[in-house]
Design brief:
The protein is mostly helical. It is built from 15 helices and no strands. The longest helix is centred in the last third of the chain and has 32 residues. The protein starts with 16 loop residues before the first helix and ends with a helix.
């Protein structure tokens, strides 16, 4: 059997969904996914033991987010992704655009802040360090759209169309680092847009939608560029193993189609979540207004009616 420089079997049989979903774990991501599930579950149990609740839907979203990472990094998809551009693109799109959305809907930062104990007076514990990080200048910079949108775009064009991609694909460590980068970029991009966890950059709902759609067209353009290319554009995939029975240009075109399709799917998911959050926010605001009116005998309405009456008196 032939092996590539990064230790992955190059003599793979033709790709099928069954072969792609066979268990083939990357140790780094296997340990990371397991640790994330254990820590999240422990935090939820800690809340419930002291009588506090935690929404079940948030737990479900977080678990699904971790499972999507495991799906692309702990199965045969990770092996085929080293030699097939189309499979690699599935990995990239899921780990950068689906997994982050699901993880963020799980509100892990909020859970950590509620579960971690408060340090004593004059002391600094994990909870205080997390709060300090959330309010730091560093977080304000990396969650601002002036930073997140260019980073989101550069992760496509600055990676795939430069020698950096081939360098990272030359080793298993480089490939893992690339996937961690994709996940981190997705989290940073979607965090201020989703607005579930606390953060330094929290624009209104309309601005969040604009931020979302500002980055998506570049994904579509990237996919179209791959689909319309007349020759392989990425050296790492220009000579696929003969055992796969695929054409490099056709596989690249499929990768472009996947990138183009994924520019739409997450946009719809995030838009639905934003509209729902907006509706919930308006409902809470209306309830607060009703409670305030009950407490003060609707003074605001009476004042407004008096103002209208004064205007009418002046006009007579």
């Amino acid at each position: 059997m032939e092996h590539s420089g990064h230790g992955v079997n190059m003599d793979l049989p033709p790709f099928t969904l069954g072969r792609g979903l066979e268990f083939s774990a990357d140790p780094f991501f296997l340990v990371g996914c397991a640790a994330a599930l254990v820590l999240y579950g422990y935090a939820v149990l800690r809340l419930r033991r002291r009588g506090d609740g935690w929404p079940v839907n948030r737990s479900v979203f977080f678990v699904l987010g971790v499972l999507t990472i495991a799906l692309v990094m702990c199965t045969g998809l990770n092996d085929y992704g080293m030699v097939m551009f189309s499979v690699h693109m599935v990995q990239h799109m899921i780990i950068s655009m689906v997994s982050p959305i699901l993880l963020l809907l799980g509100a892990p930062v909020t859970l950590a802040l509620r579960a971690l104990p408060v340090a004593g007076r004059g002391r600094t514990g994990p909870r205080e360090l997390l709060l300090k990080l959330l309010h730091s200048r560093y977080m304000k910079i990396i969650t601002h759209p002036v930073f997140t949108i260019p980073l989101f775009i550069a992760s496509l064009y600055g990676l795939y169309f430069t020698p950096l991609f081939d360098f990272l694909m030359g080793s298993k460590t480089g490939h893992v680092a690339m996937m961690v980068h994709f996940l981190a970029v997705g989290l940073v991009f979607f965090w201020p847009i989703m607005g579930v966890d606390p953060g330094p950059h929290r624009p209104g709902y309309v601005m969040r939608m604009l931020e979302l759609f500002a980055g998506m067209p570049f994904h579509a353009f990237f996919g179209i560029a791959l689909m319309m290319a007349s020759q392989p554009m990425v050296k790492a995939y220009e000579t696929p193993p003969a055992s796969l029975g695929i054409d490099a240009l056709g596989d690249q075109s499929a990768a472009g189609g996947i990138a183009w399709a994924f520019s739409e799917i997450p946009s719809v998911l995030v838009l639905i979540a934003l509209v729902f959050q907006w509706y919930r926010s308006e409902q809470r605001t209306a309830k607060r207004s009703d409670r305030a009116a009950d407490r003060d005998g609707d003074q605001e309405l009476h004042a407004y009616n008096a103002y209208l009456a004064s205007l009418q008196a002046r006009g007579q």
